[in-house]
Amino acid sequence: MEPRLDIIGAALADPSRSRILCEMMDGRAFTNKELACAAEISAQTASVHLKHLQAAGLTSSIRSGRCVYHRIASEDVAGVLEALAGLSPTDHLNRAKSRKMPEANIMRARSCYNHIAGRLGVLITNHLIALGVIRLRGEAIEIDAAGEAFFNKFGINIASLHEPSKPLVKLCLDWTERKHHLSGPLATALMNKALQMKWIERRSGSRALVVTEVGYEVFERDFGIPCSLIDSTDDPYEFGL
């Protein structure tokens, strides 16, 4: 018996459904009306698309009071969608970057479900490796006592993040950078801390994240990431993950 990849393929084949999924990759839950607006379709059409996506196992819905909210079904689904996005053509991304179009904001820093992606996410990953905070063993990541101490100073307790069925942190191939950023419970905790401490802020109506003045200072002082690298269009990545 073969896996039913045709069901997944059919769910992804419609451009409106793709736009709905990309909106959900923010990591938050959205109403039907919000998703319809993002995809530029009617609420009725969005409802039909959402039924297709949920039937394919890509999304789930929850009710809160009188509202129904829709979101990506799981972190694993989000990882698969990010990887598939990495296979897509990139000509439009290069045009957006060279012309400094609004889409370039998503390339600089964005949320990938529940962790930091884009140029900032890849820079964080590479500089944590350079600092010895995380260590690569093939595609596995190890964190020793020194690494735990690094995160503890930001109030991130490594021991509390361990889940029996999940690695603490893993690599996720970035859609726009085509290099790896971090995902998993530790990456989620890091993004939550960055939002809480106002290092980054969400952009309204977009997955893009804004690096604040405080954020630039923290990323340079504690992560070793010069401010200029975050906003640059050059390729500064040392490790080529």
Structural overview:
The protein is α+β, with helices and mostly antiparallel strands. It has two domains: 5-73, Winged helix-like DNA-binding domain superfamily/Winged helix DNA-binding domain (Arc Repressor Mutant, subunit A), CATH 1.10.10; 79-231, no CATH class. Helix content is 47%, strand content 17%. The chain contains 13 helices and eleven strands. Helix 2 (15-24) packs across helix 3 and helix 3 packs across helix 4 (43-55). It is globular. The two termini are 35 Å apart.
What descriptive keywords fit this protein?
two-stranded antiparallel sheet, 241 residues, 3-stranded antiparallel beta sheet, alpha+beta, globular
Quick overview of this protein structure:
By secondary structure, this protein is α+β, with helices and mostly antiparallel strands.
List the helices and strands and how they pair.
Layout: H1 5-12, H2 15-24, E1 30-31, H3 32-39, H4 43-55, E2 59-64, E3 67-72, H5 75-85, H6 91-98, H7 104-108, E4 110-112, E5 115-117, H8 118-130, E6 135-137, E7 140-142, H9 145-152, H10 158-161, E8 170-173, E9 180-183, H11 185-196, E10 200-202, E11 209-211, H12 213-221, H13 227-231
Antiparallel strand pairs: 1-3, 2-3, 4-5, 6-7, 8-9, 10-11
As for the number of domains, it is 2
What fraction, in percent, of the residue positions are helical? Answer: 40-55%
Report the principal-axis shape.
Answer: globular
Report the portion of residues in β strands: 15-25%
Rounded to an integer in angstroms, the radius of gyration calculated over CA atoms is: 18 Å
Per DSSP E runs of 2 or more residues, the count of β-strands stands at 11
Record the strand order, biggest sheet.
Answer: 1-3-2
Helices and strands, in order, run as HHEHHEEHHHEEHEEHHEEHEEHH
- Please report the number of helical segments: 13
Which segments are poorly predicted (pLDDT under 50) over 5 or more consecutive residues? none
Structural class: alpha+beta
Main pleated sheet = 3 strands, antiparallel
Q: Assembly state here?
A: single chain
Mean pLDDT: 87
